[in-house]
């Protein structure tokens, strides 16, 4: 009995490749194997992670829902890893470390390392192994004369509006309603993002004007992939994926400090903790009368040396010693620690809460 021919689809009518084409994509199979993803993660879901909402506005086919889940997982895993490893870090340094681990530039770099290529233009006829997005045209900045977006300031009080003043929120306020990196979150409520009634009828006139950068689309793909791993392979597989691809990257947290008045901050730290007032002492020197003298100064609290630093002058060495003492305090890390996600769902895990520090010194 002759079989009826398979129906032919006009792929050019689709904003993104149909899921049925994912299994035939060599790029998707290679990516699945390259990342050592679980066999429980369908190849169709991996293809969906590569579809940006600017390419396909239908929430049933793009990666928006997966990216939201992956963003929350990234923030949770990165925050607990940083705070449990360095419980005394100042808040501003925590924000910088979070951006170093899971920031948009880091995620975009990670996607490039995985071999993700971006399609020149999205469409149903494009290989599902390409990242589908509509790119922003070069040279079109949302702020005239600036190559990016300006941070929105908090409006001033009624009495200060006439003076043309605005207020910048403090560090404590940035931990409440902002992003993982202490930045303002812009919530867009577009009523035009409703999907169509059918696969072939999925059109959105306003979506044609929405474009994104390759960096933003790549970061959303990485978030969506982590969310897909969590949904299909489970919590343990998602945590292993995060440890293998994110925490394994070397991040120099010590270089993220920027002390304005290190000697003053050190004095206030000692006063808060009940230590003796810090005293700077010359430990060694050479070439005092030459053109290139070197002084080694140590900062002591009683008989305890808190830090030391070398410089071409006594003031420089004293400041370097104070900075070293502050870094030695803030970069304290316990020898053994467990993050909360490691014992999640485990009965009688013997969980021991991590140390809670009094916070950074406000000078």
Written description of the protein model:
The chain has ten helices and three strands; from the N terminus they run H-H-H-H-H-H-H-H-H-E-E-E-H. By secondary structure, it is mostly helical. A hairpin with a 2-residue loop joins strand 2 and strand 3. The N terminus is likely disordered.
Describe the structure concisely.
By secondary structure, this protein is mainly α. 35% of the residues lie in helices and 7% in strands. Helix 5 crosses helix 7 and helix 7 runs antiparallel to helix 8.
Which descriptors apply to this entry?
single chain, 363 residues, mainly alpha, 3-stranded antiparallel beta sheet, 10 helices, elongated, disordered N terminus
